[in-house]
Amino acid sequence: MVVAGAAVLLGACGDGSGSPGAAPGTRRTTPTAGTSTVPATPTGGSPPALPAVNAWHPDPNDLAPLAKLTAVRRIEATGHTHDTALQVIDAQYGGLLADTASVLVVTRSWQRRGHAITADGHTFDVRLTRTTEGWRVTAVHPSHPGRPAGVLTPAARRVLASDRINLPPAGRRDVRSGKVHESVLDAMLRLGTTYRIHVSVVRSGHPIHVFGTTRLSDHPQGRAFDTWAIDGQPVVGAGTPRALVEDYMHAAAAAGSYNVGGPYLLGQAPQWFSDATHHDHVHAGFST
Predict the structure, then answer these.
(1) CATH of the domain spanning 154-285, picked from 3.40.1440, 3.30.1380, 3.80.10, 2.40.160
(2) Which of 105, 175, 221, 272 is a plausible cystine mate for 267, CB 3.0–4.6 Å?
(3) 28-63 as b/e, with b when 16 or more CB fall inside 10 Å?
């Protein structure tokens, strides 16, 4: 499978309503910008080498590491060919129940065509079920951010230009599509003045409904974003200070989020929520 083509197999951290520097051993990586092309080598020269990539590993503090590993290995296996390479940036839960799960595998990828290499990347919503033999992949849904907007708002341009807001390729395309609400962009910019934020998911690549329910998630509507690392420290990491994550969650609420979820419950719903799905990231949802 050529990942850059976004055609995979079959084809939304919950909003909780009603209810990076690498950590040791994880080999996580920091997102880079969206699609770009490496200049061609001189005519007649050898084809350029694809970037070296590392196998991704779950954090020892993860709640269901085998679910993530199963999802990631599927994407890694189908993303590597003679002319393509894929690096997993992060894997977070889009939903985690007793026997079913959604793992959002955030990637960047490279495709070699002749003497040029094109950089891209997608986020994959990998669905799994638990069997007596372990977790099994049942479907893979790739992100579809949409075409770039003809004109971007000043906030969108500032987010894309910021060196304190690390967006994965699919997230950058989401912003470029013009379908991310200004409230989300403004909150990213505000949080970026205090923290270096590593965003995992914005709009595309996330389940349409809150996992296990019929409620629409804020993500596909362009009204939410998830943060997997703060100041280079992964939210899921056992060594990440609790105070850092809690302060960031409070800052997200102060930036306008009506629905903040994460590994710690800081107050009453719907303003605050915490569950197994949000053990590994901070969700910030916006009403407008």
Answers:
(1) 3.30.1380
(2) 272
(3) bbebbebeeeeeeeeeeeeebebeebeebbbbebbb
